[in-house]
Design goal:
alpha/beta; Rossmann fold; seven-stranded mixed sheet; 11 helices
Length: 275
């Protein structure tokens, strides 16, 4: 089993999901909205993710627009993606099958889950881990149900690793599980992200034997990912067949297959020697 784990904003989508529909619907510019988030975050010593969730709910209420789960899903239809993203998943799945590998695609995002669920590629993911609201009887947000920031993203790598994907299940997640029983070994994980919010997940994935790919629009966007050795590869956000991203992903899948075969042969050899 191989897990390809993506950030969403600026990794698959061309900009933050709120900037396609939500922010324009308020008559605001993206910079204005994010500046307001920064001010709220600093004023109340608030996590930036909670700040944007709070501000979205507040501004929606002030403007008379209901921020229901259904409304967020509808907004997700407006999300646009880098070239080749919509065709990417089926092609990589087929390549994995040709190597004898089952490939699962996951999202771990600081963005909003309903918006991701409403976008054109939602059906491609085995699971989506992202921020969510608790809604009242009128369907309006009253509290964060899940808020994922740059450090809490790593929790979901362990959930994928152990197969404990119910966000409400913590006991099983934190109990010891033999490596032989884990659904996706870290060595079979590929993390794809674009920036600072991905650094802890990139670091953990690589430390545990997996791989990390940095995505950019222009090479200077997050060159520190290379300078600080956070990624194995740093490629343009182009998912078309024959692109650098395409070649890199297939090369990693080839290596995972070879490594798995090596470990199986090694284990078999050791077992035979003991008989």
């Amino acid at each position: 089993m191989v897990a390809i784990i993506y950030d969403f904003d600026n990794t698959l989508s061309t900009k933050d999901m709120q900037e396609f529909t939500f922010i324009p619907s308020l008559g605001m510019e993206a910079e204005e909205f994010w500046n307001m988030c920064d001010k709220i975050s600093h004023r109340y010593h608030m996590d930036h993710i909670l700040a944007y969730m709070y501000l979205m709910a507040k501004l929606s209420k002030q403007s008379g627009k209901k921020l229901t789960s259904e409304a967020l899903r509808e907004m997700g239809k407006g999300v646009q993606f880098f070239d080749g993203v919509k065709q990417w998943f089926s092609r990589i799945n087929e390549y994995g099958r040709s190597l004898g590998l089952e490939v699962r695609h996951y999202i771990i995002s600081c963005g909003l889950k309903p918006m991701i669920e409403g976008c054109d590629i939602a059906k491609e993911f085995y699971n989506v881990f992202a921020c969510e609201y608790v809604y009242d009887e009128n369907g309006e947000p009253v509290w964060p149900a899940v808020a994922i920031n740059y450090t809490s993203k790593t929790q979901f790598l362990y959930r994928i690793n152990k197969g404990v994907e119910d966000t409400g299940e913590n006991k099983k997640l934190n109990m010891y599980m033999p490596h032989s029983e884990r659904v996706v070994p870290f060595g079979n994980m590929i993390y794809v992200g674009d920036g600072l919010t991905d650094v802890p997940s990139m670091k953990l994935t690589r430390q545990r034997g997996g791989y990390a790919i940095g995505v950019f629009r222009t090479p200077s966007d997050a060159s520190y990912l290379v300078d600080e050795e956070r990624v194995d590869f740093y490629v343009k956000g182009d998912y078309t067949e024959g692109s650098e991203m395409d070649k890199v992903m297939k090369a990693i899948l080839n290596k995972i297959r070879a490594q798995n075969e090596f470990e199986e042969l090694s284990s078999s050899s050791v077992t035979t020697d003991k008989q």
